[in-house]
Amino acid sequence: MVREKIKKSDDFMGFRELNLKYYYNNEENNIVDDFYNPVLINAVKYRRATGYFSSSSFWTFVEGLRIFLEKNDSKIELLVSPNLSEEDIKAISLGEKAKEETIEGFIISKILEEDKYKDQFNLLAWLIYEEKLDLKIVVKKDFNKYGIFHDKFAILYDENYDKIAFHGSLNESETGIMENFESINIFNSWNESDKCRIEEMEKIFNKLWENKSNNWITYDFPESIKQKVIQKRDIRGIYKERKEINIPKKYVLRDYQEKAIQAWFGNTCKGILEMATGSGKTLTAIFAMTRLIKTLKSKGFPCGILIVVPYKNLLEQWCEELSEFNIYPIKCYENKELWFNKLSIEISNFNSNSDVDLFIITTNKTFISKTISKFAL
């Protein structure tokens, strides 16, 4: 069950402001509401090692994940065990191709859960598409010896470079988080006695992530499956409520705003809003844009919208307003590594699929650069 949406009015406090316990179990605590959600809301990076993983796990703490994902630099790094059978291990020992096929088979059958959990699969697909999630598989190097990667720990980082880590029996699965009796111990980097423990967790995580272990091999998420997953995502967004672009009932236009929109439509949707500061130009423009989108959609046409604003703080304000209308544009500004690949894919989808809409927001500086102007929008 998806919980009531967490409000952002408290802003991001940082880990030190959270009133966390040193130990949680899901007999006496709600691990999602008491730990996962508040920590993720204030985190910018989540590094997780787990024996078992399923795509449904992210849906259990989706409300904290929502806010985590809104930050441009947020990232999840995930190390998981494939929990291979004896037959799988024998197959892997036959050669590199067999290894790849076995790893791919595990991902498809155990991680993606495409048929059973459509929403959960879509969430995972979007995390991969947005380059918010890197997933790697850890297997034993000596295939003649049976054993699995079975450790369960995580390190989270906030914008102040503080860290919170946990270690315990909790797997990254819906069953582990919601159904089983599991527990975790909590550590923080501003506690001297915990600091060394976190450093040791980071050390082993880095060693496995960089495939430098003597006893274990770390495989990257196969590119072939990554592309298949991306192609199967719901193009309308991660969350169901994002599917329908709509005008919130709480907004009521003033007469002069309504007249401005009518004049704009009367001039084939061309014109400049000339209003006094504080008179609601942004809201008027969004109303006009939303009505245009709905008109085009009713006639079976896709819609491409490009919004250009002077500064990045205005860009974020626009995005906040647009989210009220269930419009979530691609943010294109500053470091292009954070958005360029996504923009390229979305433009390709828009040009080849009549059912796909495209929403882009950028700054003047980025718009006039070759990075944006190279696209024929």
TrEMBL record:
Domain of life: Bacteria
SUPFAM superfamilies tied to this protein: P-loop containing nucleoside triphosphate hydrolases
Domain Helicase/UvrB N-terminal: 251-367
Domain Phospholipase D-like per the UniProt entry, residue ranges: 49-209
Listed InterPro entries: Helicase/UvrB_N, Helicase_Restrict-Modif_Enz, P-loop_NTPase, PLD-like_dom
One GO CC term, this protein: cytosol
Gene Ontology terms for molecular function: ATP binding; DNA binding; hydrolase activity
Name assigned to this protein: Type I restriction enzyme EcoKI subunit R
